[in-house]
Amino acid sequence: MATVYLDNNATTKVDGKVVAAMLPFFTEFFGNASSTHEFGAAVAPAMKAARQQVQTLLGAEFDHEVIFTSGGTESDTTAILSALDAFPDRSEVVTTVVEHPAILNLCQVLEKCGRAKVHFIGVDAGGKLDLDAFRAALSERTALVSVQWANNETGVIFPVEELAQLAKQAGALFHTDAVQAVGKIPLALKGSSIDMLSLSGHKLHGPKGIGALYVKKGVKLHPLFRGGKQERGRRAGTENIPGIIGLGKAAELAAENLEAEIARIKALRDRLEAGISAAIPHCRINGGGEPRLPNTCNVAFDHAEGEAILHHLDKAGIAASSGSACASGSMEPSHVLRAMQVPPLALQGAIRFSLSRDNSEADIDRALTILPDLVEKTRAKSPLWAEIRQKQFA
Ligand SMILES: *Cc1c(COP(=O)(O)O)cnc(C)c1O
């Protein structure tokens, strides 16, 4: 039986149409876009088309607002460092405690080396951002606000447009790490207050090692890489043409069927959550009360060992994750779930199922068939669980 892949927030399978679109750019059209001869000339229009495909998915006003990068991490880094450079007389950053490590680790380094003071805004138990603390952190010292659009572990969606307007009132730039949102929910950047946005190809059925940074027209960008004049001097280095073509195609495919896929994937996710809640006692859906991505289910089983559940799932041909891929393997409880004050008895038992358009109802039903026994099996090893069981049947 084929493996059921339910770890699409970690990475997605590259769509066959994306691969097909990329292939000629490894062979026939291998030119450097900067070359003036015919090899270069063949590449430039394809790059332009890819940029427009990304623009369309974002609902952006201009194609030159899209700068190709090597992925989400580079886009995030560029946005933060650029904003600090752009405001020499402002040295504070406002972000959240539940950001991806690409933002968190950079912010921690910036603090440590004295480059910036960073306000890390918390969330409540449901995953909702502390808006009062957010407002209080903004001042005339704020250079940049960086808040993720959607969380990679829970799928919780933040009200980024509202936050961007508050940032604007404080005279700060607003960046959003939208790596998990792009291709999963409709976006419309034209007319929005968002100044910069990060996205990554491999999270939307495109290739790894390619992404983009949206920079609103009129917002000055200080390049991370200095060198050639590529990307209008905003990102030096010979372009990853096959990657760019692949990202463009992936963006086009995501936009094509977005509304229908949202409904279909959400129905699958809801089926999974309803099935889990019906068959397995003492579990909680993390972030379940907040607006969420349609594809993400983060469930914590009390008194169970998440790593053990994952291991058994893997043996049964089902791939999921215990939070973020970067955190798993380290056995450190997720920083996101800790920020949400998930109680210790549930922290170790959290599993993330993340779906994509590749999933079917059969995938969900297979997971639901094996999960209850599997959770019971790992709970059997917990002395606390034995006590609870005893009380229940006493
Ligand atoms: C995956 C991810 C990133 C990193 O993107 P890469 O292209 O892998 O560098 C950043 N932010 C979020 C929210 C992500 O999920």
What does this structure look like?
By secondary structure, the chain is of the alpha/beta class. Helices cover 41% and strands 13% of the residues. The chain has 15 helices and twelve strands. The strands form three sheets. A seven-stranded mixed sheet has the order 2-8-7-6-5-3-4, with helices on both faces. The chain starts with a strand and ends with a helix. Bound molecules: pyridoxal-5'-phosphate (PLP). Pyridoxal-5'-phosphate is lined by residues 71-73, 100, 102, 148, 152, 177, 179-180, 200, 202-203, 211.
Compact description:
The chain has about 400 residues and is α/β, with parallel strands linked by helices. It has 15 helices and twelve strands. The chain has helices spanning about 15-20, 40, 45-60, 70-85, 100-110, 130-135, 160-170, 230-235, 240-255, 260-280, 305-315, 335-340, 345, 360-380, 385-394; strands at about 5, 65-70, 90-95, 115-120, 140-145, 175, 195-200, 210-215, 285, 295-300, 320, 350-355.
Instruction: Provide the CATH superfamily of the largest domain.
Output: Type I PLP-dependent aspartate aminotransferase-like (Major domain)
CATH topology of the largest domain: Aspartate Aminotransferase, domain 2
Give the N-terminus to C-terminus distance in angstroms: 41 Å
Helix content: 40-55%
**Hetero groups:** pyridoxal-5'-phosphate
> Per DSSP, what share of the residues sits in E-state strands of 2 or more residues?
5-15%
Secondary structure tally: strands: 12
Q: Which sequence of strands runs across the widest sheet?
A: 2-8-7-6-5-3-4
- Using only C-alpha atoms, the radius of gyration works out to 22 Å
Overall tally of structural domains: 2
Unreliable stretches, pLDDT < 50, 5 or more residues?
none
Second CATH tier, the architecture of the largest domain? 3-Layer(aba) Sandwich
The run of helices and strands is EHHHEHEHEHEHEEEHHHEEHEHHEHH
Structural class by sheet pairing and helices: alpha/beta
How many DSSP helices? 15
Average pLDDT metric:
94
Overall CATH class of the largest domain:
Alpha Beta
> What quaternary form is this?
single chain
- Described by the principal axes of the CA atoms, the overall outline is globular
